[in-house]
Amino acid sequence: MTISEREFIRSQKEQQKKRTRTIVLIILAVILIAVAVFLISRIPKKGSTFAAEFGMSIGDPNAPVKVLEFSNYTCSHCKTFALNQSADFIRDYVDTGMVYYTSYPYPWNEQDITYNASLAAYCAADQDIYFAYKDQIFSKVVGPNDLSDEKILDYAKLAGADINAFETCLNDPLLAERVAETKALADSYNVQGTPSFIVNGTLAYANNLNQAVEAAIKASGN
Domain check: are 81 and 152 in the same one? Predict the structure, then answer.
């Protein structure tokens, strides 16, 4: 083998090494970008309690079990579930991808003292801060004075709302229709008390919610 041939082979090997290094670096860069995108997607939005929060729902929309909650803001059992039980429920079933959880405010009628706070809940949902807003309501409301329009705005601020957008939403004449639609949905499931939960179409209550979800998971084959 001549000197020129050896130099050619050496040159080819060096070029191959460079190409290999380049390919490895490109693969590593793609992996790092993918990891970064995933981590960013898990960061909760400003004011949002959960990373996967959209409107009044949290979790994976493709989860095998769909749970609807109807909750009244002056209901003591609703408050107990919201403040003492929901975190465990979300950890065990929503965060694991088994449950897609939607929570609705449920005023009994337009004379219900929670009616305005329930209207405002939809404005919170429009900013994906509904669960933070709901927690503010349940943790701070003790009596009727805690549901004044001024207090409702305070809760929205504490939940992280864009107050200008929030107030604009409150003046939407179609807002009442959204509450009426929720009432009609609850009536279709024969909801007569709060909190009530609909687990894949079946009515359940706080004391048997987990059992109903477990049964639904089993029925789904998961």
Answer: yes
Question: Domain range for residue 89?
Answer: 53-220
**Alpha-carbon radius of gyration of the chain:** 26
What's the angle, vertex CA 181, arms to CA 152 and CA 155, rounded to 5? 10
Number of domains in the chain: 2
Q: What is the C-alpha to C-alpha distance for residues 72 and 196, in angstroms, rounded to an integer?
A: 10
pLDDT the model gives residue 43: 40
48: in domain = no
What is the rounded end-to-end Cα distance, in angstroms, of the chain? 66
Token pair for 7:
């130099």
How distant, in Å, are the alpha carbons of 63, 133, 148, 182 from that of 154?
Answer: 34, 10, 10, 25
What is the arithmetic mean of pLDDT over 174-189?
95
Residue 181 is assigned to a structural domain of this protein? yes
pTM of the model: 0.76
Q: What confidence tens digit (pLDDT) does each residue in 71-83 have?
A: 999 999 999 999 9
Confidence of residue 53 (pLDDT cuts 50, 70, 90): confident
Question: The tokens 């008390």 sit on which residue?
Answer: 193
